[in-house]
Sequence to fold (971 residues):
Amino acid sequence: MINKQILITLSVLLIYFPSLLQSQDLPTNKISQLVEDLKKDRRGPYHRIKWFCKDGSIREPRDPCPDSIGGGIQHASYKDIIEKNAKEHHLFFGDILAFTDPSSFWDEKNAHSRLKQYQLARYLSSVDDGWILRKGRYYRGSVQSEDEEAWGIDFYKWLLTDNERIINNYYVIRQSLRDIPHDGDNNLAQQMRSESKVIADEFPDFMDLRVKIHGQPGREDIALVQNFRQQYATKLTPELNQEFEKLEKTLLDFYAPVDFDRLKRQINKITTDTPTKQKILTFLEEYKNEERPENMVPVIADLLYAIREHSIDFKGGANRLILLDFSNELENILLRKSQEWKPDELQGLLDKIQALTYAAAGTGLVELWECTSINSLLENYTSQNKLSIGDLTDFLETSRSILEWSTAMVKSKYEHDVNTYGSFEPKAYGFIDDRIRSSIALSMGESISRLGILLAEKTSLTNAVLTLSNQSSFRGLNPGYAYGELVVVEGTEEVEVNSDKIYVFQKPPSDLKPVAGIMTVAEGNLVSHVQLLARNLGIPNAALSDINLQELEAYSGQKVFYAVSNKGNVILKLEKNMSPQELALFEKEQRNTDLIEVPVDQIQLKNTSVLSMRNVNAKDSGKLCGPKAANLGQLKQMFPDHVVEGLVIPFGIFRTHMDQKMPNTEGSFWEFLNTMFAEASTMRSNAKDEKLIEEYQLQQLKTLREAIIKMPLSKEFTDQLKNQFTTIFGGSMGSVPVFLRSDTNMEDLKEFTGAGLNLTLFNIISENNIIEGIKKVWASPYTERSFKWRQKYLSNPENVYPSILIIPSVDVEYSGVMITKGINSGNHNDLTVAFSKGAGGAVDGQAAETRLITKSDDKLLAPSRETHYIRLPSSGGTKKYHTTFETPILNTKNIEELRKIASIIKKTIPEETASDYKGAYDVELGFKDDKLWLFQIRPFVENKRALSSAYLQSITPEIDYSRKLALTTKI
Fold:
């Protein structure tokens, strides 16, 4: 499934990203059937056993590779269909590692997809009785374990010699060590969960214990499993008894006492002597008899951090392999000890969360620079005797952020391949959850939840979300309230949304149509178009955890009331439990008063000349053109070196073309449009069902949209456009790549923002594409999504006029959005910024690097978790790149530039435009070679009704943030 991450049309994506075409064409039904066939095949994905010689030749089983050519190894060859899928769809089933080229397996150009598929296959094998090797694993000689392990050792010696590979891919490399055969690998934590899942699937009475093992594992599980087996002895089949024996052995191995002498022998094999090696040996000596988890966990966390920080100080792939294997064993110890550490005072809980934060960095779940950015805050709070409620709230929010960054790391690294496999093997979707549960994120989440519960008790700022177990992980993003059917959307499948329903998304679609309310696991960023629309329109929006989403599935399809307060507490209750005050919020008379009118009294349709952007300014917004062009023209006058040149196709040119006769109708395009609205009005007056009216309008708009795309453009206009293009951009059409941006009079009204509703075409260059693109942009306000938003919130949606802004492309290195206020804090002296690498950053829901910038400080709210970005080559189109997260996107110089430009904007824009606007601005911008480029500015519109609602005020308790709590407080 295509993941829509950038503001760009699907057609442009498919033209310039052939790999997405491949994904689009993946024959999922055929592959799903192939998987089922392979499960039943006694040879699985394999064809025949053959000799594979070192000179590249392949020989029959009875014709071994002679020593004269270097010998060889014997294993299975692949079925033709397996090799075909690898070649055509980059799908690797039943990978045999021996004799596989290391660089091909590492698969760097495809974000290590082949390696990750190998991990996925190992997971599927563990939870689905061998998966495609259900019978093929018994095909004698198909895979030689000693050859696989020898290859694994050689692979890691090759892989780990490169410093950049380790720095850039630390998390994936450590995870792969748990799956790729080599001397010393094991993944007991996953094995334990897989075996418990297999038993629960076959024997439902075991489900409670399975939930315990998956969610709150501990040494006591050994006795619990043994007692369960005795209790149900008469009901267990011989096969189930075998599964219980395997699980008991795994539990005993996992919770066995640590063999410190063995670990010391392992570390002494490292030939490089470094301070980190000595630190490890000191730990193994001094803590071999230590049992207290509160003493062990902080030291192990610190050691994991040191190993990661200094891993490249160890020279040679062999030494680094020993080191990282030890790091994984150390993490296994930490997982057990962190579950055993159960603080009974606030001080211990804060210490534990701080230690697990270091462990998150040490295991690769967060980057070292990300951990450094918040360490001073956590350390400061854990060194005092008393803390204020405000300080504890900051600690909770910061630690919750670390947890969210950690789970987002797992998703970002594996989501693409999991979604690909999930399309033909749904069990693959469990992989990410399994990796999260096998990490310190599980214990960290439990500790943060305890802190959240304590603070909720002390402040009365509690969530009331049905009867869910972990209420503290809900976090309100936008205030508002809604009533409607609850729809839980698990995974990333596309759904047809309805404006009177409340949706819970794993990740909201970037082209979201109107909804009553939303909750998201992956919130994207604070300033994406979806978030801005939700904030502007008073749509309640909250973040939640994966576990919360799974628990809400039981309520999907039921009518609920949903509210988010101004301070972010969340209420979700069934319809039957609504109070009279809550029911009164949804009387139709009140809702109808909220419609907004698009002003058209000053629109100037007689101007039919293509304009230089230098000749328009903010006063022309809604008259000659939309606010994008008008405001950017204003910025060009104020910041000539930071704004590109531009052309403006005003409203008048669109209107003139709409007066042409529309094919297959009696009148013009404009008359067709107005007839449609008149007919809809008549249908309403005749009490027709609103859904029927909407269906009629959408069908008519589809007809209109298709006709506009085929509309002939006048020669006078195209000649003028070509002349102006050459004059303004210094090159003829076809030589300068440009953006075409829809710019309507419905955008950036005082009460409504049309952010992201209409079409932008990226970096197009040919004359034909520009001409055709103009008509596509004109047609875009009549798409279903754009129309539905207008129809829901505007009283005169028929009076929408598109102008077009044409600007040359700037191949920025990173780009994003700046809001000239602190969105969460409400402080107008602060800035909220979100940036992603490449073009189109942050606006379309990417997991962007988000910061709160004050006059003297810069707080990281979220790091980027987008693994792909686009650049804009001079040849036109877009080029896709893969990235990692080991360094921040914004640097110190960039942040200072943002402070300066924001200060000038806030002071100068009202002066230059003689405006009485007092609010914040929403600015789209980018950096190239550290130079700032401005692309758009608009008022930052918030929903005043939601912010001031008496009901929302009533559910927001007053909190004394200065009140102190002793760190000896019992929890």
